[in-house]
UniProtKB/TrEMBL annotation:
GO molecular function, one term: heme binding
Pfam families in UniProt: Globin
Protein name in UniProt: Globin domain containing protein
Organism name: Trichuris trichiura (Whipworm)
Domain Globin: 71-172
């Protein structure tokens, strides 16, 4: 595995009392690097390294999930609570587990496709994050995403290393391309966990729109440590005030969106 997974999510340590500020900082940081993440070479390498057959894709997703299950004791408890046998050999033949694996594969296929089309994936990914948050225990998300990130990288690097047609430098490029995309995916979904309205029943899902002034951090600003006062002003709060905790009329949403585009 080398150093690809040794530093945890994105190489940023995540302490329990700082997890929100770290995830928010990472989201802002990767948002500003969109052009680098989705350049032409990255798209080519991502597409070339993704399995084509559905059966291979399902196994790809299963390996990711099995990596999480083996690594994360809390995830095993969750499976037991759901009445599912957490033994990896049993899980591989479990229809719900297979369906979940295929959903993860679809996430990455969608991410590559959206990147190729030069559009953003935050809305779909935040919806995924919201669904997970509704079903996972409150204290599990940070551990889950750390395990998810590491397990995905292990599978990617394993697949890349199996490709004998690549030289050492090409393998590094392939692995790094996937690492960048996965890191971006995880940062966006983690941001959904900690910045969205905490009520799981809420129908409001307002992604942050990328604007030059409102969302893209300036040099040095991303490195600044958030304080207790400004920590509450997460990316999602830039377009909504504390008073706006309930679903709001469409007209109000449009007004806020226009303000965001103008850089307020």
């Amino acid at each position: 595995m080398g150093n690809l997974c040794s530093q945890g999510i994105g190489g940023i340590e995540t302490y329990a009392d700082e997890k929100q500020k770290n995830y928010v900082r990472r989201f802002s940081d990767y948002w500003s690097k969109k052009d680098y993440l989705f350049d032409e070479q990255t798209i080519v390498t991502l597409r070339a390294s993704f399995p084509n057959e559905l059966e291979q894709q399902t196994r790809f997703g299963q390996q990711i999930l099995l990596g999480i299950v083996r690594r994360e004791p809390e995830f095993l408890k969750l499976y037991k609570k759901m009445g599912t046998n957490p033994d990896p050999a049993v899980l591989q033949n479990n229809s719900a587990f297979i369906a979940q694996a295929q959903r993860y594969v679809s996430t990455f296929k969608m991410a590559v496709f959206m990147a190729e089309k030069e559009t953003f994936i935050e809305n779909q990914l935040m919806a995924i994050g919201k669904r997970h948050r509704e079903h996972l225990p409150a204290d599990l998300p940070m551990h889950f995403w750390h395990s998810f990130y590491s397990a995905v990288l292990e599978v990617i690097v394993e697949k890349v290393n199996e490709n004998d047609s690549l030289d050492a430098n090409e393998k590094l490029i392939f692995a790094k391309s996937w690492e960048n995309l996965i890191d971006y995916v995880v940062s966006v979904v983690a941001w959904a966990f900690y910045c969205l309205e905490p009520n799981p029943q809420s129908s409001r899902l307002e992604p942050v729109k990328k604007t030059q002034k409102a969302c893209q951090p300036t040099a040095g600003k991303a490195e600044k440590k958030p304080t207790a006062d400004n920590e509450s002003k997460k990316p999602s709060d830039r377009h909504s005030s504390p008073e706006n905790k309930k679903p709001e009329p469409k007209q109000h949403k449009e007004e806020r969106r226009e303000k965001a585009i103008r850089g307020h």
